[in-house]
């Protein structure tokens, strides 16, 4: 007899907004704007897809990339499968890799991550992808 471990994924893994945006890539160097009104103050669950990238980077991108002046990156550990954790997004600006920051949540949906993102603290900040 074989036993199988069944992992139940959080509901958010099947109910999120998909963002397919090549301008969020750490390799994109033109200006687009900021995320000061993109996700609301209480947050929106999003999944990044496509050529722009599928995850928020876990190390600081170079300033002036990702379509903004101060690019955002996730400063923390990624969750295990089916887990949701709270963490911090930092924004790299003027020699300080965490000049601004805000809290987010990250969920591991087995084959992809989703993020509960809020509006960034000030304009010229943007969530990046790799």
Automatic annotation (TrEMBL):
Keywords: Disulfide bond, Signal. InterPro entries: D8C_UMOD/GP2/OIT3-like. Residues 54-129 form the UMOD/GP2/OIT3-like D8C domain. This is UMOD/GP2/OIT3-like D8C domain-containing protein.
């Amino acid at each position: 007899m074989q036993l199988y471990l069944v992992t139940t994924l959080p509901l958010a893994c099947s109910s999120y907004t998909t963002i397919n945006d090549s301008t969020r890539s750490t390799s994109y160097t033109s200006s687009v704007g900021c995320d000061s009104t993109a996700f609301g103050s209480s947050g929106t669950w999003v999944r990044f897809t496509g050529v722009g990238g599928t995850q928020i980077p876990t190390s600081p991108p170079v300033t002036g990339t990702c379509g903004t002046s101060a690019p955002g990156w996730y400063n923390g550990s990624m969750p295990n499968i089916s887990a949701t954790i709270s963490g911090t997004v930092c924004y790299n600006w003027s020699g300080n890799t965490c000049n601004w920051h805000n809290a987010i949540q990250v969920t591991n949906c087995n084959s992809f991550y989703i993020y509960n993102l809020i509006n960034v603290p000030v304009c010229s900040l943007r969530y990046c992808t790799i």
